[in-house]
Design a protein that fits this description.
Helix content: 10-25%
Distance between the termini: 61 Å
Number of domains: 1
Strand order of the largest sheet: 2-1-6-5-4-3
Order of helices and strands: HHEEHEEEE
CATH topology: Nuclear Transport Factor 2, Chain: A
Radius of gyration: 19 Å
CATH class: Alpha Beta
Shape: globular
Number of strands: 6
CATH architecture: Roll
Largest sheet: 6 strands, mixed
Length: 154
């Protein structure tokens, strides 16, 4: 008589539909995959590979009534602070609202839901859209975010 041990399942050797958790960013979908990975695992090394050296981030400060823009260095400091001061980040990409693309650049407007858990009693939910300009390096063929305009409700 034989039995199957549920605590020692057979190794799955079907690798046909397996994709790595981190993309090579040779397509635009890989940028979004790595973005989600970076937030899920709070990985600044993956996140830094998503943005160009001349990256700009812009958001609307509704309290002050004007737009705020910063560059790559402040973006990395801000993202590092977010990653360090949260217990969990859950980013869900929604439908692409608009995409215009040529061989070396793309503009994408896409919806998202972000749940930020600081602690079990302090959970923030942000819904909105990102308006991204991506650039493709003609030598490496890697896509990176050059400009991010935040269109969220926060």
């Amino acid at each position: 008589m034989g039995c199957t041990n549920p605590f020692a399942p057979k190794l799955d050797d079907n690798f046909e539909n397996v994709k790595p958790p981190v993309s090579d960013q040779k397509d635009i979908a890989g940028v979004f995959q790595n973005f989600q990975y970076a937030y899920t695992f709070k990985d600044t090394s993956i996140y830094s590979g998503l943005i160009t050296s001349d990256f700009t981030f812009t958001y609307r400060d509704y309290d002050q009534g004007f737009d705020v823009t910063w560059g790559r260095d402040e973006e990395m400091r801000t993202t590092y602070g977010l990653f360090q001061n949260t217990q969990r980040l859950e980013l869900i990409w929604n439908n692409i609202v608009l995409i215009t693309e040529d061989s070396l650049s793309a503009n994408i407007i896409r919806g998202f839901n972000l749940t930020i858990t600081f602690n079990p009693t302090d959970v923030l939910r942000v819904d909105g859209r990102v308006n991204l300009t991506l650039q493709k390096n003609s030598d490496t063929k890697i896509w990176r975010i050059n400009r991010w305009i935040d269109e969220s409700n926060f």
